[in-house]
Amino acid sequence: MDFVQIFQSILSFAIAAFILLIICSISISWWILPNLAHKRLRKNGISGPEPRFPLGNLNDMVTMMKKRVNNDDKTLTSSSSPTSTALVSHNIHPVAFPYFAQWQKSYGKVFNYWLGTEPFVYIADPEFLKKMSRGVMGKSWGKPNVFKNDRKAMFGKGLVMVEGDDWVRHRHIISPAFSSTNVKAMSSLMKESATKMLDQWAETIRSSEKPEIEVEKEIIDNAGEIIAKTSFGISYENGQKVLEKLREVQMTLFKSNRYVGVPFSKYLMSPKKSIEAKNLGDEIDSLLLTIIESRKKKQLENNFVDDQPKDLLGMLLAQDNNKGTLSSRDLVDECKTFFFAGHETTALSLTWSLLLLAVHPEWQDKLREEIKEVVGDQEIDPSMLGRLRKMGWVMNEAMRLYSPAPNVQRQARSDIRVDDIVIPTGTNIWVDVVSMHHDKELWGDDVNEFKPERFQDDITGGCKHKMGFLPFGFGGRMCIGRNLTIMEYKIVLTLILTRFSFSLSPNYCHSPAIMLSLRPTQGLPLVLRPLYVEK
Ligand code: HEM
């Protein structure tokens, strides 16, 4: 055997060993380790549907979803007029999550299921959630790596995704920017954008024969504009471009067919869309970086005199930070996070409220009366919002029935003990908020009825368990933007209710489904009538 042959044999052996090593590590990390975790959960008493490699339970989920859609097609869409309350059923859990509703029947409110090669513990029991959260500090909860990767273009390492000591630092620095004084300073931006939208509605109604408007899209666009203005400003150089690109990235992710949890699925199922989203994400990062760097430069030139615009970015830059500072890269991710965590959720709380008010005109009247008492002929301002109490009940009830954030996810970064059960490190956790918000055992027999008055004397709406109502999450990681949202909700809804009365269009099809968040899949067409003659 000459030297070349020996070298070739060694090389072939090395390549074969390398391939074997890759196969072994893939099997260990994708199958053996998760499988061991699954077995451990089972031994601990958390059972669930049998997973199959590499899709886990995804196939069952898709099948049950298809079956549900077919059934709906025969029932919901055959109605000639869905405008009556009877035809708009709020019992949405089996519609939005048919698989969870089905599995609950077999395995109870806590069980184990798999997204691809990722094991999840499903929780719809607030007592279990309470016990589980008790010993876990906000900083000890992780966010599932699988979602971090999937939504990288949207959140990067922003507050929603960051963990551990980094999360503590980010939350500490960002919280003051959301103080009520700062948030109040943003109210005029909200009024300005909402008034522009309503002027257009009035114009559309005036100039067309059919006074019908598809309000879901309008409200989402409006909320996008508001959040971009309040986060990083869009009247400055590149601001508008960032807003357009952020919308594009959302649409791209939204349209791509993603089997989250299945190895390489992003690139196998929708390679083009995944690459498009990544490229858009890079473009947004570089545009935001230019905005941030130019604001920092100006700040330096002005010797740190507080001349920053009064948006969230301005407040983070102007802060006297004995708490520490965020790097430009961190700020890029936070601006994206505010946009994605803040605009669709707020828009959906408004959209679902409009649906509920359209089928309950008596509540439109009650809210108009309240607005008349509190706001009168003046312009609405933040000091009045606390007195719009009934509107607060309606907001809570809408978020109970149609929670814009339908679930909360975690990943255990250490073993978590709940009574005799141990949830092993690395297990993902899926808290089904929609299920808890629609649980008869927690809310009573009228659980699926629209009754805002249940929030009259109780901030958890009479729910039998404090952790059964979680529209803004729970514990230390509760939503940082809730003051901002409540203000935007009350301002926009007040402006709508003072200008229009509305009912559901006969073209409306009630079909709530999860598309990242809980949305009316066929939009929300409303028939609007101006309450006074617009000049
Ligand atoms: C109706 C409107 C909103 C709803 C329903 C909502 C819901 C939630 C929920 C459920 C969480 C907890 C997520 C978790 O624990 O994993 C959360 C966290 C968060 N929200 Fe909101 N949100 C809304 C509006 C906003 C707005 C307007 C902003 C910002 C401008 C915002 C920014 C955030 C951020 C940054 C977090 C992460 C907090 C942390 O982990 O420390 N949200 N939100």
Automatic annotation (TrEMBL):
Broad class of the protein's primary localization: membrane
Keyword terms: Heme, Iron, Membrane, Metal-binding, Monooxygenase, Oxidoreductase, Transmembrane, Transmembrane helix
Cofactor(s) recorded in Swiss-Prot or TrEMBL: heme
Gene3D superfamilies documented for this protein: Cytochrome P450
Keyword field contains Transit peptide: no
GO cellular component: membrane
UniProt GO molecular function: heme binding; iron ion binding; monooxygenase activity; oxidoreductase activity, acting on paired donors, with incorporation or reduction of molecular oxygen
Regions that span the bilayer: 6-33
Subcellular location: Membrane
PROSITE patterns: CYTOCHROME_P450
Annotated residues for binding of heme: C479
Leader sequence residues: none
Record flagged with keyword Electron transport: no
Family in the record: Belongs to the cytochrome P450 family.
Protein name: Oxygenase
Lineage, broadest ranks: Eukaryota, Viridiplantae, Streptophyta, Embryophyta, Tracheophyta
